[in-house]
Amino acid sequence: MHTRTPRNRTYRNPVRLRSGISAAAALVLTVTATGFQAVAAPAPGAGAAAGAAAPAAASGSLVVQWNQQISQALSTESATLGRPTAPPVGARAFAIVHAAMYDAWAAYDAKAVGTVLGGELRRPAAERTEANKKAAVSYAAHRALTDLFPGQRAAFDARLTALGYSPSDLVAPVAGSPADVALTAADALLEKRAGDGSNQHATPAYATPKGYYTPVNAPQDVDAFDKAALTHPDRWTPLRVNGKVQEFATPHFATVDPFVVKDPKKYLPPAPPAYGTNEAKRAIYHQILVNATLTERQKALAEHWQYPGSSSSAIPQEWAAYVSQRDGYTLDQDVKMFFALNLAEGEESVVAWLTKVSFDYGRPITMVRHAMSGQRIPGWAGPGKGTRIIDGEKWTPYLKTPPFAAYGSGHTGFTAVAAETLKLFTGSDRYGATGVIKAGSSAIEPGMPSKDVPLKWDTFSAAAQEVGQSRIYGGAHWYYDHDAAYQQGQELARDVWKHTQALFDGTHTNAGR
C-alpha cells in the first residue's frame, strides 16, 4: 500500500442540499461535526440548483463514428461478461484507439509526430490528401479495436466496409499505402501497450495478478450488516450481493505504464479524513442528509450518469462529439481533439486507480452503517417508499455501490480531465448544449421522474461538476472524493496537454521512447 504525506489542502464545506421529504420523516438535518439537529422542513421544491449533462452524440463525422464504435464495443463486452466495464479498462480502450488513429494521421501531417514512432512514417507532401488521411485513420481504428475486442471483429469489419474500405486491404497492404501506414503505426502502439501492466491478454482479460491486492476487511452482506466484523471502518470493504462477493476491480491499473506522464504519484491528493475525525463525521452526516432529502431531479441525475454498460470515460465523448458538430470541425481537428481528450483519459485511468489503491478508502454504505448502527435515522427506504425513519445499520444508497475504493471519485476525475482538456483545445469553457431525462425512465423508481427533467449546461466545467455531484446524490461517494478528484483531474489534464501540443507541433522528445 502506497503511503503519502498529504499536501496542504482544505476540503470545501459540503453543499447543504435542502428539499421536501415524505410525511414519514418530515424533518431536515443540519450537518455539524458532531451530529444531527432537527429543524423545520423547507418548502417543497427547494431543491439543489441544476448543473450540467451531456446529450447524445450529435455528429456523424468519421472520427465520431469510430468513437461511437468504441463505446458500442465496450457496451457489448459488458453485456457479454454480465458486468460493467471497469472504468480504467474503458479509458484505456478509448486512449489506445484514438492514439492509433492519431499516429496514422500524423504520417500525413507536415509537423505532427506519432506517440511511438515519432516522424518515421512521414509521407511525402503529395500524399497528404484528405482521402489518404481518412483511409489511414479508419484502418488504424479497425486494427486497434480488433486487438482490444477480438470477439467483435465482424462489427468492425462492417463499419470499415460501410465507410467504403475493405478489411482485405489489411491482409497484405501495399507498401506505403494508407493501410500499410495505419498497420505500422497501430501495431507499434499495440506492441508497446501489450506490456503496460494492464494484463489485457490475460485469461480472463485484465485479470488482477495473484496477490496484488487483498482487502483488509472481511466481506459484508449488503442485506445484513455486521458492525463487529468491520474492523477498519474507513477502508474498502467488499460487499456480498445475492451471495456473490465483490472483488476490487482492476487494482493493478494503479501501476500500469502511463502514456506520457513521468510520475503518476505526483498527482496523488492529500489523504482523506480518518474515521472518527470531525471531517469524517461531517461527511457521514452530509451523506445521510443528501440521501434523506433526494429530489426527483437528483435521483434522475444519479441514475442518468451511471453509464453501467460502457465506462465513465465514455461520458465526455459525447461532449467532444457535440463540439465537433457545433464548430464544424475538419478531420484534422477531430483527430486532434479526440486524441487530446483520450490521451488525458488514459492517464487518468492510472492516476485515479493509483489514488484508489493507495488510500483504499471506505464507501458510504459501510461507513454510514458502522457509524449509525443501533440508531434510528432518516433515509431513503427503497424504490417507491420515499424517506422514512430507518435503522442506521440498514442505510441504503440510491445507487448500487461499485466494487472498488471510494477516494477519489472516478466519475469526477474522468470528466474533470475532459472538461479541462476541451477548454484547452477549444480555447473556451463554453459548452452550450441541452438535453432531457424523460418522465418515467427510471429503472430504480417506478414512474419516476414524474415529469421530464430538462438539462442545460453552459460550460464543460459545469458538466463535470454535475457528473461528480450525481455520485454524491447516488450515495456512491463522499464530497471530498469529488473535490479531490476534480482538482487532480484539472492538474493532470494541464500537464498532459503540454505533451499533446508538443506531439502536434513535432517537438515532443518522448515520441518513440
Order of helices and strands: EEHHHHHEEEHHHHHEEHEEHH
What fraction of the residues are assigned to beta strands by DSSP?
5-15%
DSSP summary, beta strand count: 9
Estimate percent helicity. 40-55%
Strand order of the largest sheet: 3-4-5
First-residue to last-residue Cα separation? 29 Å
State the shape: elongated
- Count helical runs: 13
- Unreliable runs, pLDDT <50, ≥5 residues? 1-10, 13-59
Cα-atom Rg, whole angstroms? 23 Å
| Average pLDDT for all residues | 89
Structure overview:
The chain is built from 13 helices and 9 strands. It is mainly alpha-helical. The strands form 4 sheets. A 3-stranded mixed sheet has the order 3-4-5, with no helix packed on it. It has a two-stranded antiparallel sheet with strand order 1-2. Strands 6-7 form a two-stranded antiparallel ribbon. The relative contact order is 0.17. The N terminus is likely disordered.
Question: What's a quick, concise take on this entry?
Answer:
With about 525 residues, this protein is mainly α. β4 and β5 form a beta hairpin. α2 runs antiparallel to α9.
What's the structural blueprint in terms of helices and strands?
Elements: E1 28-31, E2 36-39, H1 62-81, H2 87-106, H3 130-148, H4 153-162, H5 178-194, E3 220-221, E4 239-241, E5 244-245, H6 278-292, H7 296-304, H8 315-326, H9 331-359, H10 364-372, E6 376-380, E7 387-391, H11 410-426, E8 434-437, E9 453-456, H12 460-473, H13 479-505
Parallel strand pairs: 3-4
Antiparallel strand pairs: 1-2, 4-5, 6-7, 8-9
Helix pairs in contact: 1-2, 1-3, 1-9, 2-3, 2-5, 2-9, 3-4, 3-5, 6-10, 7-12, 8-9, 9-11, 9-13, 11-12, 11-13
